[in-house]
Amino acid sequence: MNLQQLIQSRWETLSPTERSVARTFLERNEELVFMNATELAASLELYPSSITRFAQKLGFKGYPALQQAVRLELRSVLASGETHDASSVLARHLKNESKNILELQNLPPDTVQAVVDLLSTARRVWVAGERSSAGVAHLLAHFLSFLRRDVHHLSSTVGQFPEVLLNMGAGDVLVVFTLQRYSQLATSIAQEGHARGVSIVLISDGGPSPISHLAAHTLHVRLHAVG
17 and 47 in contact (C-beta within 8 Å)? Predict the structure, then answer.
């Protein structure tokens, strides 16, 4: 029984909150392999305990065990070369991701180079993204840390422990993702960074942003799905 079948078999036993978590697992499972329980809960505006209860309701010991099951399922599907009906979640995701890659060709080369220069020469790099942006922000911080020192991922916990923002200062770069919808926390982080002399790079999927006027550089990417 795969994850989709497992969720469907337990659907009637799930609370409304747990069903919202279930929909996320069915629609965005490729993002969940990179998000811990706290980040996932923040993206859904829930408490981490809600994520744990959902995992246990499906028969897992906790969220890490459920996350590992998602990883194994995705790995198995990709390794098998299995074809999918056009209506399947995975087929739609792969189609959207192909479109996303093509959209990257529309980014202005000069702006991209300017952002690369900033990231490579900054004293410190900070990366922030909430809700739908949480996964991709975590990925950037993770891989960028392999290339340079002093890369800091500002997760949703910064809302409870904002004193970490006091370490930002002139010579630093703050990358802010605002994909699908804007986050008040991300906006507050950007405003604090700007006040401290930090250069801001905004990565958005278009539309007016409440922090666009603060950004030194903005990359607009039209997304068909976040990934």
Answer: no
